[in-house]
Write the structure tokens for this entry.
Amino acid sequence: MRARLIVFPIKGKKWCFSRSIDPFASQSPSGVTPTTLRGLWKKISSESKPINANAELLVDFISDKMNKAWMGLEIAPQGSMKNKIHGFGLKLLARVKPSEIFLKSISKEVTSVQVTYPPSLDSKLVRRRLRHIAMSGTILHKKYLIGSVTLLPLTSAFMVLPLPNIPFFWVLFRTYSHWRALQGSEKLLELISNHSNPKKPDSTDDTEESNKPKQVSQPPTCILLPSDELSKLLREANGEGLDEETILEICKTFHLNKNDVLKYRNLV
């Protein structure tokens, strides 16, 4: 599966890195991740898989449960305890850095990336910035993942209280989030290492090359494509960065999440 990444300056030296949302992308088939603990144990015990594959299955199971619980809070009546918890959760989620959201979007199913950027940016600089965000992500999220796992037993002690254990579920979510961001960092670093760099054929080597056995060239996993359309949308930018109207137009044109892009502009 190919992911389309959009890169552009948003305010001063700040760049936005976001993945285009494919409206026609198919969701993962239902039934792959067990819905019950019994089903999870049966799938793990009946199939001989490596430890990392079973860990992936466990993480997906926990993620599925967390998503369903969050959806339950979202539809709770106004003024209820669940509704207040949902509002508090939104405030916490607003503090998550946009780079983490970007790295989490690079899932294990992605086999190549197409990077769209304005022609005013140097392609080597774009690739270097992508490599930097991927390498720093592997270091940062590995450290935070260890810290979050360490906090899980401590926050689980609040289960004895009659109130919802918000600290435990928040730390559990952060553990999952850092796990996914770490995987995305490693995947992105792997993909951008094999970028497209077509070479022109040399007529002087035609005879020599014809005598060599032909090898099937592997397609590049990272393709850098400048976009005139994106460049036109950025022309209205000033020293203070892109205004919200321009950002909304870019998000609409390239199918980006508006809230994630705005986080880059508001990032201190």
In short: The mean pLDDT is 77. Residues 2-30+96-197+219-266 form one domain.
